[in-house]
Amino acid sequence: MGYSDDLRLAHVMADAADDITMRRFKAVDLKIDTKPDLTPVSDADRAVEESIRGTLRRARPRDAVVGEEFGKTGYGIRSWVIDPIDGTKNYVRGVPVWATLIALMDEGKVVVGVVSAPALQRRWWAAKEGGAWTGRSLTKATRCQVSSVRRLDDASASFSDLHEWEQAGKLENFLDLNRAIWRSRGYGDFWSHVMVAEGAVDISAEPELSPWDMAAITVIVEEAGGTCTGVNGASPLEAGNLVCTNGLLHGEVLKRLGG
Fold first, then answer.
1. What protein family does this chain belong to (predicted)?
2. Which of 7, 108, 134, 219 has the maximal Cβ count within 10 Å?
3. What ranges do the domains of the chain cover?
4. What is the C-alpha to C-alpha distance for residues 179 and 126, in angstroms, rounded to an integer?
């Protein structure tokens, strides 16, 4: 596996991120009165991204970095793509479904991905041609494999927010898909997609995402045997949205969502 050192480094950076986010999570989830105050979250977001960028400056000085908080720095055929806290609204309300997403792209292809969700005590990761894994650490891991559900009416789907489908002008398409399947749940954010990788659900979709929301997820789902595209069937990072399936259902799902 050509990227094992990069994967190990991503785990080290995720460990540091977990320390920061868990400390701040306990501070910000105490009490929300009338309106969620996102100030402590942006503070935690910046602290995580700064920590990761500091490590990369020392360990991978030639690589570019693209992050949600501080944009793009550096140039090169390799770039690290960072979402310091995916699931910010959950984080601020004390809901444990949030994660740090770390990906490495080499010549435009995602080759390493780590999704670390410390409040769930879970982590998912993959490197190109090395399979997808989940567990608490590199040494305590089980392999991820997508489901073998072949029929839409047996399929389970997860999504994040109906309002976003409405804003994208695709609510009817999305509801059409929901009517055709066995069940749907709004597990939300990164969790929907990594559950496709581990075979817990068969379909996940979000109508609008940034590259840092998607990069780490795509390699994990694909290495677990699944398929990731945009709603229109193109590369998700170019499309700006994401549909993940076990592969078997992908064509049918895209047809319902109406590219």
1. Belongs to the inositol monophosphatase superfamily.
2. 219
3. 4-131, 152-257
4. 33
Taking the C-alpha atoms of residue 119 and residue 18, their distance in angstroms, rounded to an integer, is 9
**Is 106 labeled as ligand-binding?**
no
First vs last Cα of the chain: how many Å apart? 35
pLDDT value of position 106: 97
206 labelled as ligand-binding? no
- What pLDDT, on the 0 to 100 scale, is given for residue 191? 97
Residue 86 marked ligand-binding: yes
Name which of 215, 229, 220 is nearest 108 in CA terms: 215
Give the fold, CATH level 3, of 4-131.
Answer: Fructose-1,6-Bisphosphatase; Chain A, domain 1 (3.30.540)
Give 1 or 26, the one with higher predicted confidence.
26
Tell me how far apart the alpha carbons of residues 177 and 199 are, in angstroms, rounded to a whole number.
19
Which residues are 117's β-sheet partners? Answer: 122
CB atoms within 10 A of CB 177: 26
Q: Alpha-carbon distance 86 to 100, whole Å?
A: 6
The pLDDT of 42-48, averaged and rounded, is 92
Residue with tokens 């868990």: 22
Residue 83 in marked binding region: yes
Q: What is the pLDDT of residue 119?
A: 96
Which residue is associated with the tokens 């100030």? Answer: 39
pLDDT at 4 over 70: yes
Query: If residue 257 lies in a helix (H) or strand (E), which one and from where to where?
Result: helix 250-257
3-state DSSP helix/strand/coil percent for the chain, to nearest 5?
40, 25, 35
